[in-house]
Amino acid sequence: MSREPEPEFRPHRVVVLALDGLLPFELGIPHRIFGRPRDAEGRLLYDVVTCSVRPPGPVDTDADFAIHVPNGPEALATADTVIVPASYELGPVFEDGVLTPELAAAFAHIRPGTRLASICTGVYVLAAAGLLDGRPATTHWADAERFQELFPQIEVDADVLFIDDGDVLTSAGVAAGIDLCLHMVRRDHGTAVANDVARRTVVPPHRDGGQAQYIHRPVPDPQVATTTAARAWALGRLHEPLQLRDMAEQEAMSVRTFTRRFREEVGVSPGQWLTQQRVERARHLLESTDLSMDQVATNAGFGTAQSMRQHLQTALGVTPTGYRRTFRTGTGAAGVSGPAGAGTGSAHYGTVDTLN
User: Fold this and answer.
1) Three-state SS for 55?
2) Confidence (pTM)
3) Where does the record locate the signal sequence feature (predicted)?
4) Which residues of the chain have pLDDT under 50?
5) Phi, psi (deg, nearest 5) at residue 343
């Protein structure tokens, strides 16, 4: 019996839409993050191109220079993912919530089923195109109130770094765009690939806690104790049943003081942070080992496979078995959009915790 030929390798194409008044830093984020991942054979997993709403040529930035964009709007028809970075010159989009004729014509090139994402105020473009109606979204905290007034049909959450609503993802300002792009790499190809990109970019692979631009956290007084040592201690003992008082004892604090200080520094409660770290540990073990589900659950500190299943289903929208199947056999596959069930619902990342 002859073997069926393997499908031809094709990298996932990311098209970045450069608009007048764009922020050069944010335009560069998708190229930096998606331009790094490679498969086991050294092939780039993503093909990143930039386009304008006009024919190839210069596009103004908010800095003292313009950039030359080599592709016109027809490049959007080739995209698997379209990313819209922030711009300070959105005109009618920002003022009235409607697309300009050239933007509307550009968006008409986008194929149904294309994944869409925005960084900061790029969300105005997605909203004006009617792509966020009835859906959750976020943007820079300073624009959130006005954004909600302009688009009352959108569920605006200003207290998160980014929101994954399946085929549409939105992020808060500037650095949150890095978090969003790393999340998409993690969703497409797993934790190991995303962590490698983060290391090469010298950024955290996953940011915990609230949106830094929204929560006013003063610089810690160097004379005041922090919770750093307790976190390091807990990370070495995720497989053990940890109590809040155990962590507080590492810093010689009362539970109440430790909980308040922890939330000030990290943005979430110690319990939420521990769950986040255990989910990340489970993901790593599911991707990189052949341990049984019970063994993974024990090593990650969930105790039972059922408990781990519930936590991963909540955090990732996929079962441990489904996650392992995708990223043990599918890592490096072109055009992967994530494990079955992942991203099909709405996930808010970096939510500010209001519970102890």
Assistant:
1) coil
2) 0.73
3) none
4) 208-223, 330-344, 351-356
5) 75, 5
